């Protein structure tokens, strides 16, 4: 997917962050959007999908879960907090779970 297509679905890029992924030896540099993150690394494409911030803020139970998991105030929840709490990781289009790293 090109950046233009990603922005059409998820809006402008929120930030770029190096994230440590369990089972991967080095931090990966992700471009992070509201609900989606992507990293192109060597021959692999890593993607993360997660709920958008506006949806999290509308559902009290989800806001509570993010706040508790990230140890932050509910009013201070960010896209990065939502990614850390609820993301699903994919490598080259296949879901990565703790059993199939």
State the share of residues found in helices, binned by percent: 25-40%
Structural class: alpha+beta
* Most strands sheet: 6 strands, antiparallel
Order of helices and strands, N to C? Answer: HEEEEHHHEE
How many domains, as an integer? Answer: 1
| Rg from alpha-carbon coordinates | 14 Å
| Average of pLDDT | 93
Strand content: 25-35%
Number of strands: 6
Euclidean distance between termini CA atoms: 23 Å
Instruction: Strand order, main sheet: write it out.
Output: 1-2-3-4-5-6
Task: List unreliable stretches of 5+ residues.
Answer: none
General form: globular
Number of helices: 4
Structural description of this entry:
It is a single chain. This protein has 101 residues and is an alpha+beta fold. The chain has one domain (3-95). The chain has helices spanning 3-10, 53-58, 60-70, 79-86, and strands spanning 15-19, 28-33, 36-41, 44-49, 88-91, 94-95. Strands 1-2-3-4-5-6 form a six-stranded antiparallel beta sheet. Strand 5 (88-91) and strand 6 (94-95) form a beta hairpin. Helix 3 crosses helix 4. The longest helix has 11 residues, at 60-70. It is globular, with a radius of gyration of 14 Å.
Task: Name the features.
6 strands; six-stranded antiparallel sheet; 33% helix; globular
Write a short abstract of this structure.
It contains 4 helices and 6 strands; from the N terminus they run αββββαααββ. The protein is an alpha+beta fold.
List the helices and strands and how they pair.
Elements: H1 3-10, E1 15-19, E2 28-33, E3 36-41, E4 44-49, H2 53-58, H3 60-70, H4 79-86, E5 88-91, E6 94-95
Antiparallel strand pairs: 1-2, 2-3, 3-4, 4-5, 5-6
Helix pairs in contact: 3-4
């Amino acid at each position: 997917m090109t950046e233009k297509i990603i922005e059409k679905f998820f809006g402008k890029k929120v930030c770029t962050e190096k994230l440590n992924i369990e089972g991967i030896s080095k931090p990966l540099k992700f471009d992070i959007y509201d609900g989606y993150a992507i990293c192109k690394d060597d021959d692999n494409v890593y993607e993360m999908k997660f709920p958008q911030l506006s949806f999290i803020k509308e559902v009290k139970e989800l806001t509570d879960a993010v706040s508790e998991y990230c140890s932050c105030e509910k009013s201070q929840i960010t896209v990065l907090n939502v990614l850390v709490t609820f993301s699903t990781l994919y490598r080259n289009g296949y879901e990565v779970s703790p059993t199939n790293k």
